[in-house]
Amino acid sequence: MSEPRIEMIPTKKLVGKRTTMCLAENKTIDLWRSFQPRRNEILHRVSDELISLQNYSSRVVSEFFRPDFTFEKWAAAEVSSFNDLPEGYEKLEIPAGNYAVFIHHGDASKAEQTFRYIFEKWLPESGFELDDRPHFEILGAKYKNNDPESEEEVWIPGTIS
After folding, report:
1. pTM score, two decimals?
2. Mapping DSSP to helix (H, G, I), strand (E, B) and coil, where does residue 48 land?
3. How far apart are the first and last CA of the chain?
4. pLDDT tens figures, 39-68
5. How crowded is residue 119: how many other Cβ atoms within 10 Å of its Cβ?
6. Angle, CA of 14, 154 and 5, to the nearest 5°
7. Cα angle value 91/33/88 (rounded, 5°)
8. How far apart are CA 95 and CA 159, in angstroms?
9. Hey, which residues does 129 pair with through a beta bridge?
10. CA 114 – CA 36 distance, rounded (Å)
């Protein structure tokens, strides 16, 4: 895994669907199945990219990997305006700030390895400190669901100390 780039982002507006889940009761597939059929109804999109987002109630990294740790999961798209929200979809604003951006290569079954590297190796050695903003992945042009050639960006919020 290569070193991340550090990027300062402006406030981002997202429109999507959310659920509360834990790793032991992973509802990611159901969430995306409810989001995908009507995603084209989301107006004012800034790109074709989709966003998978996690809102954690803790900055304690070891909790992220506990099977019973509960968090909020979103399937979303970035928009320039919250006007004309489709029925059943919600809005979320990501505050501006620094993110460490990693590239995950491979299908979803390999994602745990990427996240363990980020949180168990890179983060403790980096001088980067997590903050309370959402964590997210950008599923762009190189993303191919469950394909070993898939690529996505993993965005981790924090500050450089």
Report:
1. 0.93
2. coil
3. 22
4. 999 999 999 999 999 999 777 777 888 889
5. 16
6. 110
7. 35
8. 13
9. 159
10. 25
Tokens of 45: 């999109």
Cα(151)–Cα(71) distance, integer angstroms: 24
β-strand partners of 124: none
* Euclidean distance between CA atoms 76 and 18, whole angstroms: 8
Rounded Cα gap, residues 105 and 143, in angstroms = 9
The DSSP bridge partners found for residue 50 are 139
Please tell me the distance from the alpha carbon of residue 106 to that of residue 22, in angstroms, as a whole number. 23
Is residue 49 within 8 A of residue 140, CB to CB? The reply is yes
Asked if residue 135 lies in contact with residue 52, where contact means CB atoms within 8 angstroms, the answer is no
* Cα distance between residue 118 and residue 156, in whole Å: 9
Instruction: Encode pLDDT of 7-45 as tens digits.
Output: 999 999 999 999 999 989 999 999 999 999 999 999 999
What is the CB-side half-sphere exposure of residue 139 using CA atoms within 13 A? 18
CA distances from 26 to 14, 67, 71 (A): 22, 9, 10
Distance of CA 86 to the CA centre of its chain: 21
Residue type, 113: Q
Place of tokens 């509360």: 20
